[in-house]
Amino acid sequence: MRIRRSCWIPVCLALLSLALLGGCRREAPEVEPPRPGPIAQVPEAEPDPRPADEPPGPPQLPPLFRDIEKRTFQFFWDTTNELNGLTPDRFPSRPFSSIAAVGFALTAYPIGLENGWISREQAVERTLTTLRFFRDAEMGPEDEGRSGYRGFYYHFIDMDEGHRYEPWVELSSVDTGLLMMGVLFAQSYFDGEGEREQEIREIADELYRRVEWPWLQQRPPLISMGWYPESGFIQHDWTGYDEAMLVYILALGSPTHPVEPEAWEAWTRTYEESWGVFQGQEYLSFAPHFGHQYSHTWVDFRGIRDPYMRERGIDYFENSRRATYAQRQYAIENPMGWKDYGEHVWGLTASDGPQRTDQEYEGEEREFRHYSARGAGLSVAFDDGTLAPTAAVASIAFAPEIVIPATEAMHERYGEHLFSSYGFLDAFNPSFHYDVPLKTGRIVPELGWVASDYISIDQGPILAMIANYRSEFVWKVMRRNPYIREGLRRAGFTGGWLEEAGEAQAAAGAAGEGGDGPEAEGGDRVDEDAADAAPGKSSSGPSPDRDGSQAANGTTRRVQ
Q1: Which CATH superfamily includes the segment(s) 63-503?
Q2: Whole-model pTM above 0.85?
């Protein structure tokens, strides 16, 4: 399931640029570096009580969630390189940027703006800086000194120059997809008439139109996980069900390099291997929970269904809700006997862990891992006692009635060590107390192993899905994007808001107001003259983790 210049700037100019930027921009509130310790909470004003005759709505979010949102937003705002818009894969150990992290960061800036944490001017400036970097980045087939090729970008790139980080880094289809979701979100959100917001829309359009999706169809109609300049195409394709739903939706919606609808048919053809009953829930299973979250971060799947889900009688949103309940029930049953698992402490996904080591636990040898895909499901599941707050918190829109108490419980029980400057650290393992060298993190007496890093692609869904729960914010913006709607339609989705959008488009066309053209719905001013834009600026699953761990569905997962 499932991330991510030829000339060096002289040091003096870089320092001068930093000084000028520091003097010109409005300073964001400073947040101290991550540290363990209690966090003072500032209660929110309670909303007015509902009228007696009004039916009860979804659960109200307690003040803790506002604090989580603010801290998680501040993570993206503070750690991103403000000179080029590149966001680190992780922090505070930040050796490289992840292009998937940039996609989440581009989504975070409007959330910060809507909440009053930054000004529109600040959000526009940071977004433009980011988009301009990717537009101007050096592209080509060379194995060094390039950021991408044929519209795709390398999974991990240098934080300063933006070049491919190291030879083990692949040109990634899914991480480019996560980046493009953020790019299209920015295109639809910044709908002002000013030149700078127009430029955001134009560059976003150019970046999306550059991506040559069919180039990665080496075994048509499926899309390969990526490409290496040294060895060529990765010999694994994206097959369902996992986070690559967004890859196919983007590829189907492309106005310049689309794939055909048979790609979605082939993608869903393997679903039968993953449909079944697990922990009392009948659903399409994928063990690590990020596969049930990533595409949903941007796409509102409520009430819209493709042919497969129409046959099953549910939609993908309901599928993720059932998967969330199955995660909790797995923790309640706790078949492996891990410490602290239960009704309010649960959540398995791709996350950090203590170390790749085999140790004895309750009389038997158990495998522990560093960064790895962890999960509970019908197949290819792995559980070493490591829990990730993002698995639960980022599921808030699916099942608030179980996510809210889980979030509060993790904060109350472990917050002194797990909750810090930028919200929840990535993961913790109450069962790991072994005296071995740790890859990352630390051992806390009576608590076990606790991560020392925040990971961007785990932070991003937390922030965006809380926003979706509160007001459907990210979903509403992305419903306006004509490319997302077209991708869904070509995949065979019908019903709900998608049908309503089609009717509105037809009505607008009948009234002579266009449809999904350059000025369609909410400022999607697409530059149609760019339709034949060159696919990038050519100058002439994902990677295996370092422990060799295999992710769910038999594919390798991203290196951390």
Answers
A1: Glycoside hydrolase 144 (GH144) (1.50.10.140)
A2: no
